[in-house]
Amino acid sequence: MRLFRPTLLLFLMTTLQLPAQETVVLLHGLARTNASMKSLAQALESKDYRVVNLGYDSRHHSIETLAHDVRRRIIEETKDAQSIHFVTHSMGGILVRQIQATDPISNLGRVVMLSPPNQGSEVVDRIGDWRLFKKTNGPAGQQLGTAEDSFVNQLGPVQFECGIITGDRSINWINSGIIPGPDDGKVSVERARVVGVSAFKVVHATHPMIMKKKSVIADVLRFLKTGAFTRR
Questions:
Q1: How confident is the model at residue 230 (pLDDT cuts 50, 70, 90)?
Q2: Quick one: which of 6, 86, 201, 220 has the fewest CB in 10 Å?
Q3: CATH assignment of 21-226, given 1.10.260.40, 3.40.50.1820, 1.10.600.10, 3.40.50.2300?
């Protein structure tokens, strides 16, 4: 019997697997890098999430091309994941919408979008044709206008569990002069919305720094766990 126990233990170890660690993919915004999501990555890892902080070349390709490449890389890096959650900043949320609209990830979990231009930005309408804007933001930046037939406004409602946090504080007074209503310097509060979301929250934060705000990080963690944000 003593000789049998090690064999039985080996059998159990190889056939009974512990639940896979929950995976969260982080997607940064336009003209940013994955370094901007470092604080979120550290907070998620401290809660035992497996984190894939994905960088991508946001400035030189269309949203369609970016989404296709990002999806391929996500699948390669999360092969053992039971479910894949997302936390995105700005255009990163548009990539998730494009992926789910064209080639859905079947084991998608919850998604938190931070300051997403879900209905575009008036800044693109006004200065999108400027040479400096094109050089800085590339083809994808041209697709973030507010016209009814713009790329983002053709994606349709979200069909997955999604929470949005957006800001109402700006340090870019030029952009804010272009954008009607409360905004974060890039996107208005109203244009961050999209049909189908299960939670929406406005915080006192700017577009470039919202992902570093401690209360926002706490809300991200809460939504991934419960599907809801904290009350004000």
A1: confident
A2: 6
A3: 3.40.50.1820
Instruction: Specify burial of residue 167 (Cβ count, 10 A radius: 0-12, 13-18, 19+).
Output: buried
For the chain, the domains span 21-226
Q: CA torsion, points 206, 220, 94, 144, in degrees to nearest 10?
A: -10
Q: State how beta strands 162-167 and 199-203 pair.
A: parallel
pLDDT in tens, 52-85: 999 999 999 999 999 999 999 999 999 889 999 9
Mean pLDDT of 29-51: 96
Angle CA(153)–CA(157)–CA(162) in degrees, nearest 5?
Answer: 115
Alpha-carbon distance of 50 to 24, in angstroms, equals: 6
99: left (phi over 0), alpha (psi -120 to 50) or beta: alpha
- What's the sign of the alpha-carbon dihedral 179, 182, 186, 191? negative
Using CB atoms within 10 Å of the CB of residue 172, give its burial: 0 to 12 exposed, 13 to 18 middle, 19+ buried.
middle
Given a cut of 70, is residue 205 above it in pLDDT?
yes
Task: Determine the Cα–Cα distance for residues 5 and 3; give it in Å rounded to an integer.
Answer: 6
Tally Cβ neighbours within 10 Å of residue 48.
8
Q: Distance from first CA to last CA of the chain, Å, rounded? A: 62
- pLDDT tens per residue, range 128-151: 899 998 999 999 999 999 999 999
pTM here?
Answer: 0.90
Per-residue pLDDT tens over the stretch 70-79: 999 999 999 8
